[in-house]
Design goal:
Layout lengths: L2 H5 L3 E2 L17 E6 L11 H7 L10 E7 L4 E7 L1 H7 L1 H9 L5 E3 L6 H13 L9 H10 L3 H11 L3 E6 L1
Parallel strand pairs: 1-2, 3-5
Antiparallel strand pairs: 2-6, 3-4
Length: 169
């Protein structure tokens, strides 16, 4: 991009309306930078999700325990869960639970980090996940693997760069 082209560009923030320059012989290029504000992100589950969150890892009410091997901690990690919630929210877990109806503990062998496992379970119960830069790409992969469309959408939205650049001609 040359210095001459920079004179024709206009930078807008989300708070400002995009104003069209008067029509000239040459098209005007507009670059819009949208900065996401961290403080606008929800920080916890609400509604029914908040109600269900209290049952995550509640041994007294659970009917199944999901376990993984956490590569970071080099140990087994388990969470007490509810078949109804898992089967309702995740098609792949429903198939696994249907195959293993009598088992009280089910080992999930393709998740190897506790933080990802916790985020997956949190999302299944609450429809909310607080992704981090460290986990967002793994969450998108898990969402795809476990056929959880809403998690894929939520994680994908988070994964967009802080600045989104569009060039209009």
């Amino acid at each position: 991009m040359t210095e001459d082209n920079l004179d024709d560009m206009k930078f807008d923030t989300p708070e400002e309306e995009t104003k069209q320059e008067p029509k000239t012989k040459e098209p005007v290029k507009t670059i819009t930078l949208l900065k996401k504000k961290v403080e606008e992100k929800p920080t916890k589950a609400t509604g029914m999700g908040a109600d269900f969150q209290q049952f995550i890892n509640d041994e007294a009410t659970s009917d199944v325990k999901l376990s993984i091997y956490d590569d970071d901690a080099q140990q087994r990690y388990s969470v007490f869960c509810h078949r109804l919630i898992l089967a309702t929210r995740c098609p792949v877990l429903k198939r696994i639970l249907d195959e293993k109806k009598e088992e009280k503990e089910i080992f999930i062998d393709n998740i190897h980090r506790q933080i990802l496992f916790d985020q997956l379970i949190q999302f299944l119960y609450t429809d909310f996940v607080q992704a981090t830069e460290d986990t967002v790409m793994d969450l998108i992969k898990m969402a795809d693997t476990y056929e959880i469309v809403h998690l894929k959408v939520a994680s994908g939205a988070y994964s967009k760069v802080c600045f989104s650049i569009s060039i209009n001609q």
